[in-house]
Amino acid sequence: MIIDVFQKTKIKKNLYYWFFSILIFSLIVIHSGISDARNNGSIHLILGTPTPATNDPTNEDDYLMLKRQYALSYNNR
């Protein structure tokens, strides 16, 4: 009787460990995906861009130039 109680709690404990491990892993993966989208894949824009600048040359009002050495945001206004 006592052994059954310990086995059931051990199984519950293992399920909780698996659940929280998968939850934390999922959050890390989701966060890294959001970070890559937010910084346009540049190490210089880790905190994101203050404006919705794009690297489309026809976008003269909010042009984003990404180089290996730097990131430059240009505004024609």
Tally of individual helices: 1
Give the proportion of residues in helices.
40-55%
Mean pLDDT: 75
Calculate the terminal CA-CA distance, rounded to whole Å.
79 Å
Instruction: Classify the secondary structure makeup into a structural class.
Output: mainly alpha
Biggest beta-sheet profile = 2 strands, antiparallel
How do the strands line up in the largest sheet?
Answer: 1-2
What's the gyration radius in Å?
A: 24 Å
Q: Tell the overall outline.
A: rod-shaped
Low-confidence stretches: none
Tell me the strand percentage band: 5-15%
Describe the structure.
With 77 residues, the chain is mainly alpha-helical. Helix content is 48%, strand content 10%. The protein is built from 1 helix and 2 strands. Strands 1-2 form a two-stranded antiparallel sheet. A hairpin with a 4-residue loop joins strand 1 (63-66) and strand 2. The longest helix is centred in the N-terminal third of the chain and has 37 residues, at 2-38. The termini are far apart. The model has no long low-confidence stretch (mean pLDDT 75).
What's the arrangement of secondary structure elements?
Elements: H1 2-38, E1 63-66, E2 71-74
Antiparallel strand pairs: 1-2
Features:
single chain; 77 residues; mainly alpha; 10% strand; rod-shaped
Briefly summarize what is shown.
The protein is mainly α and about 80 residues long. It is built from one helix and two strands; from the N terminus they run αββ. It is about 50% helix and about 10% strand.
